[in-house]
Structures are given as structure tokens and as C-alpha cells.
User: Fold this.
Amino acid sequence: MPGIPKARIAQRLVEAVSSSRWIQFERGEFSRKPIGLPYLLRVALGRGEQREFALYFWSVSHGGRSRSDDEYRIQLKLEDDFALRFDSDTTILLGYYDAALDRVGSSLGNEPPNGMEVIVAWDPMKHMFLGRSSSCQVRFRSMLAAHRRGVAMTERACDDGSAEQVYCFRPEFLGRYLYCARAGHRLIREAIL
Assistant:
């Protein structure tokens, strides 16, 4: 699957947040010019509370023909410091999947419904320090479940032996995810499912 341009993903995320009843979009901009991550998103949460999210996002694509048919991933590539920034209120790690661009997965037997669009969220604390190119995996069946039900959660094993919760959801749930994520990714399970 070819990478979706960052500006297009940012536009789609802003559209999703702008239509949310959980938070109100105020402004968004790339932190580095012309289009460098993180994308800084400022929202209002209600009662005058504002929050800035540092969004890191990449296209979700199939892991490659040598991988399981069900394995998808984002390929995290940062230009300078190889680490996520945690100087905003909340750092968020996302993947964006669009079925219209999933040629490899479809050729291997995954059959995404027309119009399937899913956002995947990983725990940024599990991915604080990255190499030149790191990846975060998610199963196609988890994204498909989220497309059908709205939200799905799965766990994946990390290199250090711990488990990571991975959330998949349709774009209309992004505002709810962000609203809950201000308390930390690990605490979202009860609020979003």
C-alpha cells in the first residue's frame, strides 16, 4: 500500500475531530515545516479546558508478502531525534487505514469492505525511542472488527515481554479516543469499548 501523504491524513483526522461531540477542534499545524511530525492539534474539551495533542501518524499497510496475511503495520520514521516528543499535553501514536489503497493485503485474501476506513492507536509509552525505522503491528481482523462495530481492542506482545493494548476505531470515534487519552492510553479500555 503506498503511503498516504501526511497532509491528507492530517486533513482526515481534523475532519473527524471537527465532527466530534466529545471535543471541539481549535487549530492544527505540523510542528516542522513543510510537513513534519508531530502534528500539533489544539482542542477544547468543555468548561473552558483546552488540550494540545502531539499526533504522530503514518499509513497502515500490509507487512509485506513474507509476513502473515493478517499482519498490518505502520512504519515509524522520524527525521531527527528518533524519539517521540512528550512536551505537549498528550502524545498520541496513530495509524490510518484506507481500504481503497490496500492492494497487497487484498491480493493476499483480505477482503476489506468498500469504504473501510480505520484509525489505529498504539500506546506511545511503549514506543518512546525508535530506530531509524520501527514498526507497530495490528491484525487485519482487529481493524475489520472496528469497521463493523465502531471500536475494537486487541493486545500485542512487546519485545520486553509486556503487553500493549492496541485500539482500532472508525474515524467518528477519534474525538472520544482523544478525550479519554488525556488520562493515558492504558486507561482508555473501559471508556472507549
Observations:
- The chain has five helices and ten strands.
- The first strand starts at residue 24 and ends at 32.
- The mean pLDDT is 88.
